[in-house]
Amino acid sequence: MNNWDLIDSSAHKILGVYLLDKDPKILYDFAYSDNLWLQRVGMISTFHFIRNFEFKDTFEIAKILLHHDHHLIHKAVGWMLREVGNRDFQKAYKFLKIHYSEMPRTMLRYAIEKYPEETRQDFLKGRK
Length: 128
Description:
Largest sheet: none
């Protein structure tokens, strides 16, 4: 896989499904790699975990990629954090409250996209 569309439409359906009941170490290896596409696979694969209400690996891989410099990673991490929030607002909120000030703006915006307007503005203005 060598583009965001292929990764976004398949990583969670293939690798995520396969790893749900196995050691997800490979996702961490991907996140730590120097390959943008592997890093995105590592993050997006956790979407299947999220759909099964397992958020630990999503949060841990998000922390690894928190300071990444590429917008495709910012969007992937923000999207997965938003998906966690769709299922467990409090856990996503707690993670964001700790890390929002370090996040690239695009990552934060994706993560808080569905939050109430006042809460979104508090995050964006650094009042959390």
